[in-house]
Amino acid sequence: MKNSKRIITGIIASLVLLPGVSGKASLKGMNDNVITTKKISVYDGDTLDSHIIGNLNINESLIRIFMGNNLDLICYKNHLGYVEKNSIISVDFPTSDILYKEISDICYTIKEVNLRSGPNTTYPVIKLIASGEVTSSMAVTNNGWVLVNYQGTIGFISKDYLKKINFAELEDQLANLPKIKKMVVAKKDVNIRREPSINSSTWGVLKAKKKVSSMGSYDSEWYQVTNGKNVGYISKKYSEEKYVIDGMYYKRIYMTLDAKVYNTPYGKEIGICPKYEVGLVYGETRDYYLIEVEGKVGFVKKCNVKELTGKYIIVDISSQKLYLYDNLDLILTSSIVSGKDLTPTDLGIHKIYSKELNKTLIGPGYESFVKYWMPFNGGEGLHDASWRHKFGGSIYKENGSHGCVNLPTKVASEIYNNVSVGNKVLVKH
What distance in Å separates the CA atoms of residue 389 and residue 408, rounded to the nearest whole number? Predict the structure, then answer.
């Protein structure tokens, strides 16, 4: 990737300069017992313009974890915060045998883990952190806990659940990814004009769904575009700007949870892919996939997705479409009628568990004969619906099924002859 070094620099800057961490030089490990000499405020960062998160009275007993330039990091009743150093004094005896070694690492969580207010499991949980989240590490204790800053919240995580990001390795991986280009895509056939005016002459037409390289927005009404030789203008009314990956996809995946999408590995969150959404993989680093989903581009954590392989079916409720694939190859697509609003087809990743011919389906208020029956989720299945003359659109909302996926007879026959028991059926919005 051409700008991999700039991306790495940006990632480091966004992670190291987190609220509450002013830099390695200002920290000195202490772990001594102190008391307050007056009424004081407790801050969430190590500067006086940080947010006040509490107040303490005179003669309160605290544990000082780090000594800073102006404010010290303290622990009070299992809560962490910063107080002015001239408002506390040390006492003569140690409070524990825990020692701190200062570090300055950027790490990520290797599994879901608790962020705690102290360096062992007896301390309360501050929050639950998902797998793959990035933290800025400040110190490590001799009992194996790391003091971290996670999105502005300071706490402790066992070192067994953290892994240091290797930025040199990441830079090499980013350099091998396909380029991401900004393109203008036509919603319908639209003129490419020489000037940003409907009265200007044209030098071409961009056909519907075709794309051309974007040079960005010219103003509120026009995109500036180029084909490498000429520069022109396209009306925003008939087009939209999208990011496109300049390469070939080689995997199809689905989200196992509502997955965050990032602008770079370990970078800024730019969106959410809902659970069971399907994406195409164009590249990968050790921990992330570069994907395209519904016309949008970004990175998702590998731990939040699974690959679709072999023969599988995707049922898209929103578009009322079914797709049958053999690995990446599309075998067929068809309009469907899924469950109506009162009896919707269940979202999820299912498996065909039977194949039957000439089956009578019986349920509350109905008895229907079908030629091809392929159940995948309890009483829900794929089958022909000879009584229907139309499929697709919004039919399902009021005249949908009891949960099954209704198909034209010819399509049901073709699917029946192409799938086996055990093949996956993914139902998504």
Answer: 8
> How far is Cα 271 from Cα 277, in angstroms, rounded to an integer?
13
User: The whole model's pTM is what?
Assistant: 0.77
223 & 263 share domain: no
CATH of the domain at 185: 2.30.30.40
Residues 291 and 385 in one domain: no
Pairing, β 311-316 against β 424-428: parallel
380 assigned to some structural domain:
yes
> One-letter amino acid identity for 40?
I
Same-domain status, 199 and 280: no
d(CA 59, CA 51): 23
Domain that holds residue 384: 311-428
Burial class (CB in 10 A: 0-12, 13-18, 19+), 215: middle
Residue type, 142: N
Q: Are residues 394 and 416 in the same domain?
A: yes
3-state secondary structure 213-248: EEEEECCCCEEEEECCCCEEEEEHHHEEEEEEECCC
Same structural domain, 297 and 202:
no
CA 23 to mean position of chain CA atoms: 29
Q: Is residue 156 part of a domain?
A: no
Is residue 360 situated within a structural domain? yes
Sheet holding 259-262, edge to edge: 269-273, 259-262, 296-301, 288-293, 278-284, 251-255, 305-307
If asked whether residues 413 and 320 sit together in one domain, one would say yes
Summarize pLDDT for 187-218 with one digit per residue, the tens: 999 999 999 999 999 999 999 999 999 999 99
What are the helix and strand counts (H, E) for the chain?
4, 37
| Residues 229-246 pLDDT 10s | 999 999 999 999 999 999
**Below-70 pLDDT ranges, the chain:** 1-31, 91-100
Whole-angstrom distance, CA of residue 383 vs CA of residue 363: 15
Integer Cα distance of 148 and 411 in angstroms: 56
Residue that finishes a domain, picked among 58, 77, 94? 94
Distance CA(107)–CA(159), nearest Å, equals: 10
What is the torsional sign of CA 383, 389, 392, 397?
negative
| Same-domain pairing of 401 and 292 | no
Whether residue 120 lies inside any domain: the answer is: no
Question: Are the beta carbons of 121 and 113 closer than 8 angstroms?
Answer: no
What is the dihedral sign for C-alpha 45, 48, 50, 52? positive
Asked whether residue 239 falls in the same domain as residue 259, the answer is no
Which single residue is written with the structure tokens 């005016």?
197
